[in-house]
Amino acid sequence: MSLSFISERTFDVNGLTFTAKEWGSPGYTPVIALHGWLDNASSFDLMLPYLSDMHVIALDCAGHGGSSFRSADSGYNIWQDIAEVVGVADHMGWDQFALLGHSRGAIISTLIAGAFPSRITHAALIDGYLPGVADAKGTAIQIAKSVYEAKRFGAASPSFFPDFERAVQARVNGFIPLTEAAATVLAQRGVRQHEKGFYWHTDQRLKAASQIKLTRAHIEDFFTSIVAPVMLVQAQDSGFKPDAQQNETFSWIANFRLLKMPGSHHLHMEEQAEQVAVQVQNFILPE
C-alpha cells in the first residue's frame, strides 16, 4: 500500500514539544524520518508517496518547523537529538524501528543506530552520515567559540521578507541551493508571518558552533556498535562528498552499502525523489 499522509502529530519529550507528520498505516514497518539542517518534516513529502507498507513519523527536529526551541541554557549538539528521537519512538510504542535520515538527520541516525543497536532495524541515509571529525586538542577553542556564537545567534532576529515568495527565493538561492518547488514545500511548513514580514521559523542558535565535537575515537565507537544494515545514498553533485578520512570510516560499519546517484544534496526532494524512494523501499523491505 502506497503511503498517504495521515495527520499532524505532537509528542512531549524531555520538556519539549515535537511536531511531526504521520504517513502510512499503523501496523506496518515503523520508520522515523529525520530532516536536514534548517529544513523540516516536509523534506520527505515528495518521496514518501513512492514508499509502501510503512508507518512513518517524519519529525520536526528541535528548533525546526513547529517543534520547540531548546532552552537558553541548552544548545544544538548533534547527540542531543538521540534522546529526543528515542523518546518519540517510545511514545509510539516502537521497541524497534527503521531510520530514514537526510544530511543532519542522517548523521543523527548513525549515532542513534550506534547508541541503541538493538532498537534500530535499518538506517537509510541520504547524502550525509558522518559528523565532522574533531581533534581533541581543539576542545578549548571549540567551547569558547560555542559560547560566543550561542550569545550572538541567541540575540539575533531572523531575516524578514516582504512576501512569502521572497522567503522561498531566499532558500532557492541559499547556501545549499534548492529548486523552487522543493523550497516551496519546505516554506509551506517553515515560513511564518509576522508584523515585520515573512520569516523562516527556525532557532537562530542552530547556526552556532557545537559545544563539543566528536573525535575520531568517539565516531569509531558509535559506528562499530551499529548492527543494523546501513545504506548511504550519495548525491553525485553534492558539495558534501566524503573525503579520504571519512571514506575510511565506512569500514567501521559492519553492514554498509554505498549507492551513488545523480542529483544534488536535496535529491530526495527533486526529480530523483522516486529513484531515491525505490532504493529506500528495497533496502528496508526487500522483496
Query: Rg from C-alpha positions?
Result: 18 Å
- Report the average pLDDT across residues: 95
Largest sheet: 8 strands, mixed
- From the helix content, strand content and strand pairing, which structural class follows? alpha/beta
Q: What fold name stands as the CATH topology?
A: Rossmann fold
The residue fraction in helices comes out at 25-40%
Cα separation of the termini: 14 Å
Order of helices and strands: EEEEHEHEHHHEEHEHEH
The low-confidence runs, each spanning 5 or more residues with pLDDT under 50, are none
* Count of the domains: 1
CATH class: Alpha Beta
Number of helices: 8
Report on this structure.
With 287 residues, this protein is α/β, with parallel strands linked by helices. The chain has a single domain (1-133, 215-287), classed as Alpha/Beta hydrolase fold, catalytic domain (Rossmann fold). The protein is built from eight helices and ten strands. It has an eight-stranded mixed β-sheet, with helices on both faces.
Ordered list of secondary-structure elements with their pairings:
Elements: E1 5-13, E2 16-24, E3 29-34, E4 54-59, H1 80-92, E5 97-102, H2 104-115, E6 120-126, H3 139-154, H4 164-172, H5 180-190, E7 191-194, E8 197-200, H6 216-224, E9 230-235, H7 244-248, E10 256-261, H8 273-284
Parallel strand pairs: 3-4, 3-5, 5-6, 6-9, 9-10
Antiparallel strand pairs: 1-2, 2-4, 7-8
